[in-house]
Amino acid sequence: MELIQRFVELRDRLAGYSPLEVAIELLVIWIVVYFAVRFLRETRGASAVKGVLMILIVGTLGIRVFGGQGDSFQRLNFLYDRVIGFVVLALVVVFHPEIRRGLRRLGEAPFFRLSSIEFRPTIDAIVDATSFLSKNSFGALIAIERNTRLGTICENGTRLNAEVSARLLQSIFWPNSALHDLGVVIRGSRILAAGVQFPLAQDEEVPDPTLGSRHRAAIGLSLDADCIVVVVSEETGSISVAEGGQLRRHLTAEELREFLIDKLVIARREQVTDETEDTETDDAGEPGRDDDLDLSNDPSEAA
After folding, report:
1. Fewer Cβ within 10 Å of end Cβ, the chain: N or C?
2. Contact 266, 273 (CB under 8 A)
3. Residue 295 scores a pLDDT above 70
4. What fold, for 116-286+298-302?
5. Is the pLDDT reported for residue 39 higher than 90?
């Protein structure tokens, strides 16, 4: 009878709330949980998410039903409060890489998105350069910025702020050049920096332990930021691309082109459909966009 009374009291308390207020609160909670689970999915701590959520839901419902008012189950209430504190601390420890990445993405997210039309010539240049580098087994590592600014990691590289072109990318990754061992960061139609050190993925985040430092750097940066990272293996000439910590390997040049168009043009156009016309108008008047680089002495041309 006491259990039934608890349910009746809980029902009466809920009946006192406005239906609109309850609906808004549930919607906010659902949105928070949805994005939290979506962010943690396919990460190192993803396997613990369901268990933790189940414990919290069952524990909270149990305490609300059995705890109630008065002296009943006070020890259980006390224990539950202490367990919740421990669980929160444990979550911070378990998910600290994901929390750090999430805060970095939030802090570096741009207020204005680049237009999808900007990526068309960039994609052509990347595919042409990658095809050349792959045929000659020249290693390359190219990060393409999306919704997370990569300016912070560019601080450890050499600033270029140059127009993207296949010839410039080829000369950067030409063997024995000063910048060929590290990565390039691209924003829109500009190469922000070269010789950039990308964060390396941890062992458990790498699908194949035989992968070298370029592939580990590609996976690591794609986990840290919303970007696409193109990799050319120096050993085999194989083309790979990393996104969200997932690595797609052994792509042809055309498969790479299709992937980049899908992720940088089609997906962006769908995401910012209402803003595309205004953004393209602004980009058309951006100074310095039509400047060409003089690469007549590019080493790749001589080869």
Report:
1. N
2. no
3. no
4. YojJ-like (1 (3.40.1700)
5. no
The CA distance from 56 to 207, in Å, is 32
| pLDDT tens, residue by residue, 95-124 | 666 666 666 555 555 544 444 456 789 999
Residue 166's Cβ-side half-sphere holds a number of Cα atoms within 13 Å equal to 13
Kind and range of the H or E run holding 220: helix 213-224
The domain spans of the chain are 2-94, 116-286+298-302
123-149 burial, b for 16+ CB within 10 Å, e for fewer? bebbbbbbbbbbeeebbbbbbbbbebb
User: What count of other Cβ atoms lies within 10 Å of the Cβ of residue 116?
Assistant: 21
Are 263 and 246 in contact by the 8 Å Cβ rule? The answer is: no
Full strand arrangement of the beta sheet holding 227-232: 158-163, 190-196, 183-187, 140-145, 227-232, 239-243, 246-251
In terms of Cβ atoms closer than 10 Å to its own Cβ (0-12, 13-18, 19+), residue 59 is middle
Q: What are phi and psi of 138, to 5 degrees?
A: -100, 125
Model confidence over 3-14: pLDDT tens digits? 677 667 767 766
Closest CA relative to residue 184, chosen from 148, 233, 221: 221
